[in-house]
């Protein structure tokens, strides 16, 4: 149990729908019980004192009394709904054929976990990432996704007939976390050491992305592409020594200031409002330290020590709003110092 009195378990999960609230998407959190039965916990639109759900643009945050397995379930209500796809192309020599080269195109949910699974699988078979991954907005317009290979040097490489364009139905893309296809190319001469072409990924009556391939083809070339080292290819963690935490002294002072309402009205409800967490206040009111839970949620959404400035600004704004009687204003430590992230600002 945290020392500040916050008893909640925080779960964060990346999601891939764009404009979820704008398109009227309704999401429900469901828990899997020990008997493998699904029970509805809450709707995102509902207020609850036992569960708090917050949808950000790329992730969902859940605060729960009990740990468990939870799912975010939703459906598009209009054709304006969008599912973000991450597109990547990998390549490598085919087994048993020094002149055969395979290009594998993946269309996966735009989340770190989904792409990391592809990276791990390709690494195990010596695949190379040939182009920086790109994002494609996939519309809920019921139209299919087409993947085609273009501009293959015709005097250097050949490709099997009728395989230059491959198609995935709308349901298979919308309801699945991963789609992939492969193009098998044959070089006319073993001396051909370069391959250049384009991969077009487009939705009918939707968006298109082009993946440009230009790679050396050599039997000895097994090193992973430098894109593997990019930060978006790894899974980040909200725990451990690398995670950002509000310094303990600042957290304790904020909680002491805002957990009890005073004549100036500077209580935890105003803190929630200024930190843009004013929804479902009934959940916070049931907590032993509402301010501690609010700060923990804010902390999870802002995993960068640079965001302490925005926290300091919010507290300063609260101080300005209620500066009617300076003698009633408690001091608020909130200006950054380098290194430890402690801040001291006195109203």
Automatic annotation (TrEMBL):
Gene Ontology biological process terms in this record: axon guidance
One Pfam family matching this protein: Death
The protein, known as: Death domain-containing protein
Domain of life: Eukaryota
Death domain span: 262-320
Organism of this sequence: Eleginops maclovinus
InterPro entries registered for this protein in UniProt: DEATH-like_dom_sf, Death_dom, UNC5A-D, UPA
Disordered, as annotated region: 1-23, 322-347
Matches recorded under PROSITE patterns: DEATH_DOMAIN (PS50017)
Cellular component per GO, a single term: membrane
GO molecular function: netrin receptor activity
Regions of compositional bias (Gly residues) in chain numbering: 338-347
């Amino acid at each position: 149990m945290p020392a500040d009195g916050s008893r909640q378990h925080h779960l964060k999960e990346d999601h891939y729908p764009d404009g979820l609230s704008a398109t009227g998407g309704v999401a429900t959190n469901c828990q899997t019980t020990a008997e493998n039965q699904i029970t509805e916990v809450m709707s995102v639109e509902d207020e609850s004192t036992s569960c708090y759900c917050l949808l950000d643009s790329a992730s969902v945050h859940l605060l729960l009394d009990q740990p468990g397995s939870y799912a975010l379930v939703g459906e598009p209500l209009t054709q304006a709904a969008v599912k973000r796809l991450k597109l990547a192309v990998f390549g490598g020599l085919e087994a048993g054929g020094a002149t055969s080269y395979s290009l594998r195109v993946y269309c996966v949910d735009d989340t770190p976990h989904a792409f990391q699974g592809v990276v791990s699988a390709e690494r195990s078979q010596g695949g190379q990432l040939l182009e920086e991954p790109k994002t494609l907005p996939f519309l809920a317009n019921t139209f299919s996704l087409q993947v085609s290979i273009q501009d293959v040097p015709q005097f250097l490489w050949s490709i099997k007939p009728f395989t230059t364009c491959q198609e995935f139905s709308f349901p298979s893309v919308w309801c699945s976390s991963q789609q992939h296809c492969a193009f098998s190319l044959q070089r006319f001469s073993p001396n051909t050491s370069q391959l250049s072409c384009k991969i077009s990924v487009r939705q009918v009556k939707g968006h298109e992305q082009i993946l440009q391939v230009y790679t050396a083809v050599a039997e000895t070339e097994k090193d992973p592409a430098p894109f593997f080292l990019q930060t978006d290819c790894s899974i980040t963690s909200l725990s451990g020594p690398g995670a950002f935490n509000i310094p303990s002294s600042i957290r304790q002072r904020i909680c002491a200031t805002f957990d009890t309402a005073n004549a100036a009205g500077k209580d935890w409800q105003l803190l929630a409002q200024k930190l843009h967490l004013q929804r479902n206040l009934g959940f916070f009111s049931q907590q032993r330290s509402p301010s501690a839970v609010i700060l923990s949620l804010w902390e999870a959404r802002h995993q960068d020590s640079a965001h302490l400035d925005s926290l300091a600004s919010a507290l300063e704004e609260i101080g300005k709003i209620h500066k009617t009687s300076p003698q009633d204003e408690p001091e608020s430590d909130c200006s950054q110092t380098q290194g430890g992230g402690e801040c001291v600002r006195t109203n």
